[in-house]
Design brief:
This protein is mostly helical. It has 2 domains: 3-96; 108-185, no CATH class. It has 6 helices and 2 strands; from the N terminus they run E-E-H-H-H-H-H-H. The protein has helices at 17-97, 116-124, 130-134, 138-148, 160-168, 172-181; strands at residues 3-4, 14-15. The chain has a two-stranded antiparallel sheet.
């Protein structure tokens, strides 16, 4: 008994049952191999992408850990900086409030227009010597006098730095002549 099958692998139109089974098995085997290859091609990029995603996630975790460490270091440094700034402000305040009087104070009363009370005001303002007085702006001296009250506003300190320069240079006779010609120390 011959079975008439139009097969793919057979050239004859008639062949036996075993030939048909073999043909079917071969077709199933080819289908299996093609299916396996197709599955491999479809899932292979997914596995690669999954592996790459895992690697990137791991790298991301490492970078986040490093970032957290850097942030904690930054916070620590910011705290140290804030402490330094606070200490500096405290030192500046302490230095500003501390009156440093020099070992030598000049007799500022030699200057025409400066008496004992104004001399004390100038000492309190940090003007201790004729050099200090000669280098001080007249506006600053005027503000010291204005702060002291209305009794001191009448004084004109415009010539005081000029007179102090003569005292520095030991021009005592010239200073005396100038003071005699300019009563009250006014230009």
């Amino acid at each position: 008994m011959q079975i008439l099958v139009s097969g793919l692998f057979s050239t004859s139109e008639t062949y036996g049952k075993s030939d048909a089974i073999l043909e079917i098995v071969l077709m199933l085997l080819v289908a299996f191999i093609l299916g396996y290859l197709l599955r491999y091609l479809i899932e292979s990029p997914k596995k690669d992408n999954s592996k790459k995603c895992d690697e990137l996630a791991h790298k991301n975790d490492l970078l986040l850990n490093k970032l957290e460490i850097k942030n904690s270091d930054l916070k620590k440094l910011q705290g140290e900086l804030d402490a330094c700034v606070k200490n500096r402000k405290e030192l500046q305040l302490a230095f500003a409030t501390q009156k440093q009087e020099p070992a030598k104070k000049d007799d500022l009363k030699i200057i025409e227009g400066i008496g004992p009370k104004i001399e004390q005001l100038l000492y309190e303002a940090g003007i201790y010597t004729w050099v200090d007085l000669s280098n001080t702006e007249v506006g600053f001296i005027k503000s010291v006098l204005d702060k002291a009250g209305p009794n001191y506003k009448v004084h004109d300190p415009a010539s005081w730095p000029f007179q102090a320069k003569m005292a520095i240079n030991n021009k005592w006779e010239e200073l005396k002549i100038w003071q005699d010609e300019h009563k009250g120390g006014k230009f």
